Amino acid sequence: MRLMCLDTCSQTVSVAAMEDGKLCLEKWSLQKTNHSQVLLPLIAEITDELGWTQESVDCWAVVNGPGSFTGVRIGVSTVRALAHGWNKPIVAVNSLETIAAQVTEKSVGIIPMLDARRGQVYAALYERNETGMEEILKPTACSFAEMIQQPQDREYILIGDGAQANKDSAVSDNMRFAAPELQYIHAGAAAEIAWDRWQKGEVYTYRDLEPLYIREPQAVRDLKK
User: Fold this and answer.
1) 13 by DSSP, 3-state: which?
2) Per the CATH hierarchy, to which homologous superfamily does domain 2-94+185-224 belong?
3) What burial class does residue 23 get, using C-beta atoms within 10 Å of its C-beta: 0-12 exposed, 13-18 middle, 19+ buried?
4) Two domains, one topology: 2-94+185-224 and 96-182
5) What are the structural domain ranges in the chain?
6) What is the pLDDT of residues 67-78, one digit of tens each?
7) Can you tell me the mean pLDDT for 7-16?
8) Could you give the residue ranges of the DSSP H alpha helices within the chain?
9) In 3D, which of 34, 37, 49 has the Cα closest to residue 4?
């Protein structure tokens, strides 16, 4: 059984392939713009190296937001087209849980953050336990200062490009920043989450998959003023 996962939500574009529950290959590019020009060639590179065809992929997965509005649209529309073309199911994984999945420590609060611009971050709160990642606070858009107002009875790890953008900010002693190299979204981490969901039947069709925006695009907000 084969799964391929795409991410275009932030600065990076990445694609990962899994077969029978094992990560086979991941490719990514630090591409701040023109995600659409990078994504399909990455997919082609992976299928060529693995000797796959797009039709042989049994399930398509995508990081469906939150993140760059344009980036999210590119990833979601691409995976919709691929799933439609080959009549395959889709699994959605959000960007914040994908970033949080890189933290393997247990019994700590994991706060993934993505830069949402205009003084805000997309953020959530997770904890890793014996059964996997548990969502404590749902994804939201808020300021960095608001997100670090957490109870003082535990340790927290701040991770993601939204955290790195604020790494010089004062935080309480029970909070620490993850290593800078962990700030990026990796399709490989999302693929592992997606594989588990696929096995549980938590899938979409190309018709019902939706982007996870959290807030409205700036153009829409401007029209409402």
Assistant:
1) strand
2) ATPase, nucleotide binding domain (3.30.420.40)
3) middle
4) yes
5) 2-94+185-224, 96-182
6) 999 999 999 999
7) 94
8) 35-50, 69-86, 95-100, 144-147, 161-164, 187-199, 218-224
9) 49
pLDDT at 175 over 50: yes
Backbone angles phi, psi at 150, to 5 degrees: -115, 160
Look at residues 127, 158, 128 and name the one whose alpha carbon lies nearest to residue 144: 158
Q: Does domain 96-182 have CATH number 1.10.287.3510?
A: no
**C-beta separation of 144 from 113 below 8 A:** yes
**Percent of the chain predicted with pLDDT > 90:** 86
- Per-residue pLDDT at 36: 87
Query: Token pair for residue 122?
Result: 């997309």
Encoded tokens for 56? 């042989």
Task: Tell me which amino acid residue 78 is.
Answer: T
Say if residue 66 is preceded by a cis peptide, omega within 30 of 0: yes
What DSSP assignment string belongs to 17-60? Answer: EEETTEEEEEEEEE-SS-HHHHHHHHHHHHHHHHT--GGG--EE
pLDDT 10s digits, 81-97: 999 999 999 999 999 99
pLDDT of res. 33: 66
